[in-house]
Write a structure and sequence with these properties.
About 60% of the residues lie in helices and about 5% in strands. With about 325 residues, it is α/β, with parallel strands linked by helices.
């Protein structure tokens, strides 16, 4: 292939990548809608409201009848549901948790108003509010892409500039610690988009950084430079658009929602929400996902260390010269 042909091929490849990125980032936003969104219903009219919800939007809302208001609040703070409708008063009261998703809280408020037929009178209580400096969650949603991009960049640089696998491991650890501390210092101290304990959030950000950078560096170590492209494109074109950072996993189409939560960006979003707004409730699943990715990255880098030791030249032995 001569130089002009190569230039045309690169241009076509770049255009295809552009189209793929457009689909990856725009398609989830266009198809955002409730899908089996868990909502608690309590009070004397709970059964009737649950039936109306199921009939009004089949497959959109998953009503869960609970004993009373206390049970509804517990389900909300434990991240078992996204909201609650309390019957018995006219119009019914609504409990939401904008810390879990400001978009879902807004949608549930609108739904309850439609059911009651009295929009202005519906009482809404935000049980787990978003950060007051980021009430719509815009800052939180915008925070995820830089975490992913910086992790990809760190993995790429380590893969290209650091030849030894053992040194790459040290580089990934260094990036994770420094990146976690610095990113949360900015998110909490300057931008103020996350409440909660700084040390815990920094640990989460560090684990995310390790998982992303380690995946890139680990695959590059195991299979060569092709691993950089595989890991980077997976994190950027699948993990980030389907992370549900600006919405919620239940608003994305399946199976992409489940795939997104099985990748580091989606797990990072869920874990950060759990730690920042819910005192760790619901953190087990996303934490396990990130630990598995981090462990896989270490294993791949470890393969590189073993491989390097096998090809190390043996030290030359001194040859005795006759006197």
């Amino acid at each position: 292939m001569n130089i002009p042909q190569r230039a045309v091929a690169v241009g076509i490849g770049a255009a295809l990548l552009q189209a793929l990125m457009l689909i990856a980032f725009a398609w989830p936003a266009v198809h955002t809608a409730p899908r089996d969104l868990p909502v608690a219903v309590a009070g004397p009219g709970a059964a009737q409201v649950a039936e109306r919800l199921a009939q009004r939007s089949p497959g959109a809302i998953e009503p869960r009848t609970v004993a009373d208001e206390a049970a509804a609040r517990t389900a909300l703070t434990e991240r078992e549901v996204y909201g609650a409708i309390l019957t018995g008063a006219q119009p019914p009261r609504v409990l939401v948790a904008s810390g879990a998703s400001p978009l879902v809280a807004q949608q549930l408020t609108q739904l309850a108003q439609q059911l009651s037929g009295a929009p202005a009178a519906t009482a809404v209580e935000d049980v787990v509010p978003a950060d007051p400096d980021d009430p719509r969650g815009a800052g939180f949603g915008a925070m995820v892409l830089p975490l992913v991009m910086s992790g990809i960049a760190a993995g790429v640089l380590l893969s290209l500039l650091v030849p030894a696998a053992s040194a790459r491991i040290a580089g990934v650890f260094t990036f994770a610690v420094a990146g976690g501390l610095l990113s949360m210092a900015i998110a909490q101290g300057w931008l103020s988009v996350l409440p909660g304990a700084y040390a815990e959030l920094a640990a989460v950000a560090g684990l995310v950084s390790f998982a992303v950078a380690g995946a890139v560096a680990g695959l590059a170590t195991a299979i060569g430079r092709a691993g950089i492209g595989i890991a980077a494109l997976t994190m950027l074109l699948v993990g980030n658009p389907f992370s549900a950072a600006a919405s919620a996993p239940e608003l994305l189409p399946q199976p992409w929602s489940a795939i997104g939560q099985a990748l580091p960006p989606g797990a990072a979003v869920s874990l950060l929400r759990s730690v920042a707004f819910f005192d760790g409730a619901g953190a087990g699943g996303p934490l396990l996902v990130l630990l598995v990715w981090a462990g896989a990255a270490l294993a791949l880098l470890g393969v590189g260390v073993v491989r390097e030791r096998k090809v190390e030249p043996e030290p030359e032995r001194a040859v005795l010269q006759p006197a």
